[in-house]
Amino acid sequence: MKTLFEQAVTILTLGFSLLMASFNVHADAAHKLQEKLENIDSYKASFSQEIRDEFNTLLDSSSGYFELQRPKQFRWVVADPYEQEIVADGDNLWQFDRDIEQINVSELTASLETTPAAILTKNEVDIVDNYNVAEIATSSEDTLLFQLSSKAEDSLFERLLMEFKGEQLIALQVSDNLGQTTSIEFSDINLAPGFAKNYFVFTPPDEVDVIDNRKKVADNAKDKP
Length: 225
What we know:
By secondary structure, the chain is of the alpha+beta class.
């Protein structure tokens, strides 16, 4: 019969083994997701989006199209029920609300760093070091579903689900720290759209108000002692 000490050692060893197995499972999922993301250099798709609150009440729905070219270039265009265009040109983030004829522009890196968009748009994203990743079982052999949570304390999202069918990203679901959930489904996906070199350059239309938040950030930095 084992002594109490021997029993305690056995329990601790088993617990450590299970813990290491859990770490390995999460690491495998992170590496698998990293490979999927590295295969997406450019991307074009239509989308439908729903935003729901913590009680699952529908707050907003919209549709449009999404275009991506790594690194840090994308265009997110809402066509219905209102017209909005968000463009990242590599350095700046432009948000054009056509209904009110107003444009907000901010510095891109600061705007994206702690958001899910960074995972898709940055040239290199270290999933293994920056995120906790788990693979969720699905009913289809060619469909993979990953759940992510950021290791950063200032992350703007609590949980991110990414669904792939083959090499195609077909859906996203983001749960934020306020209890809201944004669900996005993609269709008509093209992984080789062949964008022109200056395709993501944004030129503000004439006679549209431009609120330049880059200047505000720069001025605030100068005022600090």
